[in-house]
UniProtKB/TrEMBL annotation:
Keyword Zinc: no
Chain segments annotated as transmembrane: 16-33, 45-62, 95-117, 137-161, 167-190, 211-231, 237-256, 277-296, 316-349, 356-378, 398-418
Keyword flag Cell membrane: no
Entry keywords, A to Z: Membrane, Transmembrane, Transmembrane helix
Protein name per UniProt: Uncharacterized protein
Organism: Halobacillus salinarum
Top-level division of the source organism's lineage: Bacteria
Length: 419
């Protein structure tokens, strides 16, 4: 089905995604031919990211219940205020993203970006796109650093066997330091743009507080539902989130007495999203073929050899790991695939570094690349929404990825003093 989906959607995808998909398939074919995998295994190589496509098709239902409950007005209140200039707005936008992304994940990005697109419509496109791609993607990654639902953090804990409770304070420290540094830089970067931002501030503070409380309760309940599906029903996390979205959103709309509004908004939005996944299908399934072919290729062992050579030099190992995540991400390899490479030499790494140190290092360096991954889901969504080349988004966020990775290395070095 994955192969059929690519064949059907390749002609319908935008030219930039056709080019990217073609390159990924060509490199994947090279890795495949270099290995010993049989032709019968090829269909399985395209299956890895189909779950992500399923999740993408369901996201409009969560967005629709937020719109039906008029929670977008709450987000406007969080983003709003009397500030002139975009420096202060950058800080407020990043705080909003950090607050929401840990719960809404990708939905928070799409909602916030839609709001900011409308609210910054008076600004020049170049400035507006830079602002949105920086504030939302960076805030999104800062939330992922400590969220127990983030797959990269969960994978790093799985590799090392660390205790999440032990790791959590250090990951929060990375997130806090990253936020302080990036919000300060963003404030300075956009401070010269003093034009009035078209964001109405709320006049109903009491009502907003009540709505914010309802919003937080609903999101916590959603997390509880997902956790129960994962731990009691024993479902895969990604699948659990995907199948929980519509039933939860529908019940939420019923409790708010917004069922008709929810269906009226959600049905057209779901059809529109599902019928226009061409770019995502080409990109994600081509990327799946590349990463699976790489894992089955003899070239994988060459990527593991430098770790052995750096044994006894913790700082060099940390810098190498950060560099590897960045380079592999820019080449189109998902951080999870890179994490798998390091997992292959996990015993060597754990001999060189304490468990908590290694977990903080792997998680922070991998998550730091999220805003700079040209073929990553959040960058692709932003690219499509802003009609912006994904590599332009990468260039805007690459300094942040370097900075956040270095912050993670600094905190990892700090853990060496304790462990």
């Amino acid at each position: 089905m994955g192969i059929i989906m690519i064949l059907l959607n390749f002609p319908r995808a935008d030219r930039v995604f056709q080019l990217l998909g073609g390159i990924l398939l060509a490199v994947g074919a090279f890795f495949f031919l270099s290995g010993e995998s049989s032709i019968r295994e090829i269909p399985g190589f395209f299956a890895e990211n189909i779950g992500l496509l399923f999740l993408l098709s369901m996201l409009p239902w969560m967005n629709s219940v937020v719109k039906a409950g008029r929670y977008t007005h709450l987000l406007q209140a969080l983003l709003g205020g009397k500030s002139k200039g975009m420096g202060a707005l950058y800080v407020r936008s990043e705080i909003t993203m950090v607050s929401l992304a840990a719960f809404l994940n990708l939905s928070s990005a799409t909602i916030s970006q839609d709001l900011l697109l409308k609210q910054l419509k008076k600004k020049r496109k170049k400035i507006r796109d830079s602002f949105i791609s920086m504030a939302t993607l960076r805030g999104y990654s800062l939330a992922l650093l400590w969220s127990p639902l983030e797959i990269l953090l969960a994978t790093s804990i799985f590799i090392t066997g660390a205790n999440y409770i032990e790791v959590l304070p250090w990951m929060l420290l990375v997130a806090i330091l990253g936020f302080i540094l990036d919000s300060s830089i963003g404030r300075l970067f956009f401070r010269k743009h003093q034009a009035e931002v078209d964001i109405p501030s709320s006049q109903h503070n009491g009502k907003d507080r009540k709505k914010l409380l309802q919003f937080i309760v609903a999101l916590v309940l959603f997390l509880i539902v997902v956790v129960l599906l994962v731990n009691v029903v024993q479902l895969n996390f990604l699948f659990a989130v995907t199948i929980a979205i519509f039933p939860f959103a529908f019940v939420w709309s019923v409790l708010m007495k917004r069922r008709k509004s929810f269906l009226r908004i959600g049905w057209p939005a779901w059809k529109q999203q599902t019928n226009h996944l061409n770019n995502f299908i080409v990109l994600l399934l081509s990327l799946s073929f590349l990463t699976e072919s790489l894992n089955a290729s003899p070239y994988l062992k060459y990527l593991q050899q430098p770790i052995v050579a750096l044994d006894g030099h913790p700082l060099l190992i940390m810098l190498f790991i950060q560099g590897a995540f960045l380079v592999m991400t820019l080449l189109g390899v998902h951080p999870l695939a890179t994490m798998g490479i390091f997992g292959g030499v996990g015993s060597l790494l754990m001999d060189a570094l304490p468990t908590v140190t290694l977990t903080v290092l792997l998680a922070s360096c991998s998550i730091a690349t999220v805003p700079s991954a040209p073929y990553g889901l959040i960058v692709t969504i932003t690219s499509v929404g802003l009609r912006m080349n994904p590599y332009q988004i990468v260039l805007k966020n690459l300094p942040y990825s370097l900075l956040c990775g270095l912050v993670g290395i600094g905190v990892a070095l700090l853990t060496l003093l304790i462990y």
